[in-house]
Design brief:
This protein has one helix and eleven strands. By secondary structure, it is mainly beta. It folds into two domains: 29 residues; 144 residues, lipopolysaccharide transport protein A fold (Sandwich), CATH 2.60.450. Strands 2-3-6-7-5-4 form a six-stranded antiparallel β-barrel. It is rod-shaped. The protein starts with 8 loop residues before the first helix and ends with a strand. InterPro entries: LipoPS_assembly_LptC-rel, LPS_export_LptC, LptC. Pfam families: LptC. It is found in: Cell inner membrane. Keywords: Cell inner membrane, Cell membrane, Membrane, Transmembrane, Transmembrane helix.
Length: 195
Amino acid sequence: MPTIPKIPRYLLTAGFIGLAVVLGLSIGYFNIRPASFNDSLTISDPNQPDFFMENNRILMLNEQGTPAYELTSVRATHQADDDSTKLESPRLIFYRAEDGEPWLLEAEHGVVTQAGDQVELTDNVLLQSQNPAQSDRRMTTQALTLFPARNYAETAQSVKIENADNVTNAVGMQVYLNDGRLELLSTVRGQHEVR
């Protein structure tokens, strides 16, 4: 019986390592193709968001460097097609000028437009002054549009204003946030409870 020549151990080890490297490189080449390094990112669905944030907090400063408003939400999803941001459970604290008490705005949903100049709040919208003297005054509606740069909010929907001892219902409302002035537009009805 012929004898098989004995190959030195270091040559066998080097051969196995070389074979493993060649095998690894060939698998890597087929998994990571040079075409996958294309710089242009194509979004095929225009409704596809380009980023999202969860449990976010955004503090917007005015020109003087003091807080204009603070926006928190459970989730914020930025839409690439119209440059808007959709909000889930937004909570906005809108600070008044001249150290006035802030306003609290809450809703189930919201949309911030591309320039941030308009905030659309929808579904169970709450608007409440954080003034301790008026802490029991609550305004609720189904939709409210806030214009932060103008310190103004409005709705064409029905509005319910509740105080400690009265309830006012109306259709349409304009709120001037800096001075706390509020205008009810039509079909105003009030109910006052005497204690």
